[in-house]
Amino acid sequence: MTIDFITYQLQSIGGKEYHQITGVLVERGIRTAHRHRQSDLLALFLSISGEHRYLNEEIDDLAKKASGLFFHAQGSVTRAIQLVIEDLNKAILERNLDRGYEGVQAEGSVNITVLHNGRLFMGQVGDAQTYTIGSERFERCGEDGDATEKLGRSKRIYPRLYQSEIKAGDLILMSPHAHASWKAYYLSGSTELMMSQIKRRLQNQMIQDFSVLAIKTEEGNGKVRTGSWDIEEEKSKKADEDNFSEDQPEKEPKEIEQDIHEEEESAPKKPEEKPQKTEEEIPGLPDVVHLGDGDIQVTAGETEQIQQELPEVIQKSRKQNSKLLIGLARLWMRGKTARAKLQLTFGRIKRKLVPKKPIIQTSESFTWLTIAVLTVPLIIILSSITVYTRFGKEEQHKIFMDQAQAAVLLAEEESDTIKQHDYWKDVLALTTKAEEFRITNSSRELFQKAQSIIDEMDLAARLDYRPALTQFFPEGASISQIKASSSGVYLLDSNSGNVLRIYLNTKGFYQLDEEFRCTPGPYGLATITKLVDFVILPANSKNFKIMALDGQGNLLYCQPGEPPISRTLTVPDGGWGQIIGTAYANDVLYVIDAGKSMVWFYEGNSADSAEMSGIVFTESPTMFFDEEIPDLSGAVDAFINQEDLYILHDDGHMTLCRYSSPGEVKLTECEDPAPFTDNRVGIENTKPWIFMGTHFIGMQQARVPNASLFLLDDVSSALYQFSYQLNLERTLKPQTNRNYPMPTSNPSGFGITPDQEVFLAYDNQLFIAPMK
Q: If you average pLDDT over residues 750-764, what whole number do you get?
């Protein structure tokens, strides 16, 4: 089924309506677009705020340039969305830097929605919001608040990515800001209304300016059309007038007004969910606890937000302490004034009785008086603050713990597993909040209990990381690949292009091998450029441990204590594009060229030297693909399992290809994207192409204890473990460790050793944990 976009724009500024919004663009791919983009429908909403000097025409030009970039981008649709957002961020940032001397800075929000192969793909930065409304669903995608990333603030940008089902008749709303009145209660059922009625609902209870791009989906030919908010109502009114005398008796004005009111409220409203147990039914529940409609609000698909309003007990305590401080200050000032008056009176009497003898105040008395004047009020204030801090923190800890215990009761009595999961997440969040004020044995026990139950539902295990080395790697290093063998652990520094080696010392820590050399440079007739990947070699007569590959197709053979040796692969027809990685299995070397969307493989050849049999490749390469060639422009990593080639893309989807040799009748086939399987509690889409909210940056296989594929998510620092059929088996998350806190930055790489140990790198820092 092909869907059309019918677009409606509405902007309200100072009470005035506008039906053309700056930065809004909805287009279909043209004939010159990339073959993967030709049937896509793009809706883009760019909003720029701050003290800037952008003209409306300049903002529209940015949107048009972004549209052109999207429709000519290679790779998956999410990759194209990311390229557009990165380009917009770069343009705004460069302008901010150019005009920084003027003190003028701009920041932007962008909202991109793409219809691709019958599904909606969304990318957002800033406060952008997207609402998808169907006959039986209401979904909100977006974040709001000062903490959200904005375009033009930094070089690196991490967009939020979403995807959703879409059907003809659904309604899509795109806005640069979240609005309190645009909730499921008010907007559910809007697909059954005319656009004029939807317009009134959007304006209902709206007191501030707003902008919205509304898209009505209809079955059609994949085109974009412009609609009118009021045209349907005008047609409806005309039809009603024609049939009024025949079908309807005359109504009084009051009845007509009542009908209009009922029409506006005709959409079905979602009933409010109530917890199975109210506060009165839970013994010992304090008055300040309001689960469900109170302090804790849980919305599907959003992070729980704990209200930060201070409890009434603490507010009273603050008021009492403030009154005490004010009273003490007034009393002290009155005493100081009375003392000054007495000194002045006695001074006058002394001057009259002994006029020739001046009143002399010694330096010692003056010093002690000054110290007393400064110290006494300071002691009073510090004592009050200490008392408040101690008792205030205890009260806050108790309140959050009471709320957590109440959530435990609800979780234990709930039979629905999805609701149980939500309640235990509340327990974990509340306990974490309580421990910000005080850590007790009971809070630790409750935290561990909630975490254990949630982990079991989420198929998660915890890894207890500790530093792997007693030192850091060189400043500026960024470890991206880690592979281990019996001869040591080898690590690729993606910034310098060097391969490093560490080994286990007698103290139980790993130590950097300062003598190991596997770096770019001239070696014989070849000049090795920046190394992009390496593989562990099998036992060979030359005792080479690893083989590294640079971006020009040159190989570097390295071993501890000896200089490297270089060789050059035969260049394929058409030359190299962009080599991003390599894989090695059964004496065959695979080279992934993302620039040419090609995978070449070289079979081992012993013609040059019998001593290098199986690790020297002199023959011309062979194409891995036949007629079906997937787009590899966004590929980041790959590995080979017998005849199956797995290729990970930077948007998180996987390409799976099975090789067929020339002698076979069947050609090499690829599944792009290959669906994952996710059977965790609360997951609606059990066959996703990508995992929402994740960003996979690396992939590695391990055969112990069972053959598995591991992907590193640099958003959560978690490892996702899959079977070779891409079924999610579990996630491995870092355990909170107060003795060895993990960095707050994103991890850069990982590795798994044959001894079932996990290495996790944060640029030049390396951590290790035993796998459970």
A: 93
Q: Is the pLDDT of residue 236 over 70?
A: no
Listing from the earlier edge strand, what are the strands of the sheet with 460-463? Answer: 460-463, 728-734, 718-722, 708-713, 696-702
- At 143-188, the pLDDT tens digits run 766 557 889 888 878 888 888 888 899 999 999 988 877 888 778 8
How far, in whole angstroms, is CA 534 from its chain's centroid? 30
CA-closest candidate to residue 96, choices 66, 60, 52, 62:
52
Which among 115, 405, 184 is positioned nearest to 285, based on CA atoms?
405
Per-residue H/E/C for 410-470? HHHHCCCHHHHHHHHHHHHHHHHHHCCCCCCHHHHHHHHHHHHHHHHHCCEEEECCEECEC
Phi and psi (nearest 5°) for 182?
Answer: -90, 75
> Which residue(s) pair with 503 in the sheet?
511
- CA geometry: angle 192, 194, 197, nearest 5 deg: 105
Q: How far apart are CA 717 and CA 713, in angstroms?
A: 6
Query: Would you state the structure tokens that stand for residue 528, as one six-digit string?
Result: 């090795």
**CA gyration radius for the chain?**
34
Q: Determine phi and psi for 481, rounding to 5 degrees.
A: -130, 135
Distance of alpha carbon 132 from alpha carbon 475, whole angstroms? 47
Length of the chain: 772
Query: Would you call 708 helix, strand, or coil by DSSP?
Result: strand
Q: Which amino acid is at 145?
A: G
Residue whose C-alpha is closest to residue 410's, from 427, 433, 430, 435 = 427
Of 705, 718, 694, 716, whose CA–CA distance to 756 is shortest?
705
Q: Which residues pair with 760 in a beta bridge?
A: 750, 767
To the nearest 10 degrees (0 to 180), the angle between helices 195-203 and 231-247 is 120
**Lookup: tokens for 671:** 């599944």
Q: Is the pLDDT of residue 335 over 80?
A: no
Q: Is the pTM of this model over 0.70?
A: no
Mean pLDDT of the 606-621 span: 67
